[in-house]
Design goal:
Blueprint lengths: L9 H10 L13 E7 L3 H11 L11 H14 L11 E10 L9 E13 L2 E12 L2 E13 L17 E5 L2 H10 L9 H6 L9 H11 L8 E7 L7 E10 L2 E8 L5 E7 L1
Length: about 270
Amino acid sequence: MPDLERMPRLGPLYRAAALRRGVAADPALPTGALTVGGVTVDRAHLAGYNRVCGFRLRDELPATYLHVVAFPLAMALMTGRDFPFPLLGLIHVRNRAEVHGPLPSSAAFEVSVRADALRPHDKGTQLDIVATAMIDGALVWSSTSTYLRRTVRSSSPGVPSAAPSQHAVWRVPRRVGGDYAAVSGDRNPIHTSRVLAKVFGFPRTIAHGMWTKARCLAALEGRLPGTYTVDAAFKLPILLPATVGFSAVAQGSGWDFGVHDGRSGRPHLTGTVR
């Protein structure tokens, strides 16, 4: 796929996603990448993102912010004619981001997105969307988002193991779905519309997984290494509004962290910083 002159507009991509039906007879991932150079950060947008996710406003970008920057490219890739699955119905189950160097908010980034690793899974099919950001030809950030196309329904959940001790209790208001949609561009209706969330099987709107991951990193702000990998698995959705427990245990220069239901202890997210 050719390089693009600018980031795609999300409105037409959402219309394309809504109209897409059917699965390719012989699914295969597109082989090219989408790339945009000279991508700069809007300071007002960054401030809004930091407010919603709990970060302080600094000159250094949060690791999760570049996921938002790359999101229009990922949408363009996943709504393209050569992408094998409809976007609606894909479940974001994991995100692994690597910070390879400083991420100054004043920098101009070259951002690229590609699809990789189509593979079978015991619940269907998984694939990865890999995003990278470079400054002056040097890789400073990369991210792998794993998506599941479910074709096999889960069996009844077993008895959960004991949840870690809570180090903080977060009250997550209903507005988080809409607030994060506004700053991320991810306007999947399961996060913003109670009626449409029910159509997709949720009794209420749910928090974005990437908001939950960002909120965890914000809680660790100031205690992260200069370069690191942050890996998070998205478990049970957070039904809004909610009360959840946050846990974080130091592991050398990194962390094991998680978010659990405030009553049952079932995990919403488990993650590591290394």
